[in-house]
Design a protein that fits this description.
This protein is α+β, with helices and mostly antiparallel strands. It contains six helices and 18 strands.
């Protein structure tokens, strides 16, 4: 099942895609795509619906962030071996965790503001994991049972803010619009092997990233289990699981984003995002 949120920013409604890829309005059935709706019990009645019986949403409606009420946006750094190498780092012995502000969340096709003073704005296509049930001290064997589904993330970064002067990863990753998710939340039953998905990203039609989740240093089950040792994972929390090689910082010479450039990115089975970089207001 592919779940979406549609409508103007701040007034999104829940929806799902029918067999023809058209958005259907779920607002008469579910309050939103978040919280208890993401549990197995909450998703079960949605699976039973006949999508064609739901109201059709007009074509071209804006898609918002595919999850509502996100409490934590947790990111994993250097989790692809080739990306670690391109940054000059050694693949870590344990997952590298940092937080991205939830105010960075955006729709999959929203324009991305370039922060004031930015000189090194970068892209990162990532597989997002959406938690569906409270997880604390869960085993790797049980971990995927706590996952509601998966989505595309663009973990945008400002490398100067992140790494230079008093650089901090959270500061360099949390600018407004730096967390587009979606277009869809795809429930876990449709993704039998999250470690076998192709991720790609292009800028102005030039492909820079083309990897596979099989190359992760730490897989999805290991990440969910590991993070649950240090904090309770709650329904609607998102884990952005790292990016393959090909980021702007790793190119020779680096090719950071400029106003007017367009990004297109996607993951097998999870849809595509399209974003243009605009000047901050």
């Amino acid at each position: 099942m592919r779940l979406v949120r549609f409508g103007e920013k701040g007034a999104e409604k829940p929806g799902l895609l029918d067999s023809d890829g058209r958005v259907r309005d779920l607002s008469g059935v579910a309050a939103d795509i978040g919280g208890a709706v993401l549990s197995d019990a909450g998703l079960s009645p949605l699976h039973a619906l006949k999508a064609e019986a739901l109201p059709l949403v007009p074509s071209g409606a804006r898609l918002g962030a595919c999850v509502a009420g996100v409490g934590k946006f947790i990111c994993v750094g250097l989790n692809y071996r080739d990306h670690a190498r391109e940054t000059g780092a050694t693949p870590p012995a344990e997952p590298v965790l940092f937080m991205k502000a939830v105010s960075a969340l955006a729709g999959p096709n929203d324009a991305v503001p370039m922060p004031r003073g930015s000189q090194k704005m970068d892209w990162e296509v990532e597989l997002g994991v959406v938690i569906g049930a409270r997880a604390k001290h869960v085993s790797q064997a049980e971990a995927l049972n706590y996952v509601a589904g998966y989505c595309v993330c663009n973990d945008l970064s400002e490398r100067g803010f992140q790494l230079e002067s008093t650089g901090q990863w959270t500061k360099g990753k949390s600018c407004d619009g730096f967390g587009p998710i979606g277009p869809w939340l795809v429930t876990r039953d449709e993704i039998p092997d999250p470690q076998n998905l192709r991720l790609w990203l292009e800028v102005d039609g030039v492909k820079h990233q083309n990897g596979t989740s099989a190359d992760m240093v730490f897989g999805i089950a290991e990440l969910v289990s590991y993070i649950s040792r240090f904090m309770s994972l709650m329904p609607g929390d998102i884990i952005s699981t790292g990016t393959p090689a090909g980021v702007a910082m790793g190119l020779k010479p680096p090719q950071y984003l400029r106003v007017g450039q367009r990004m297109r990115l996607g993951i097998d089975g999870l849809g595509e995002q399209n974003q243009i970089v605009v000047a901050d207001d």
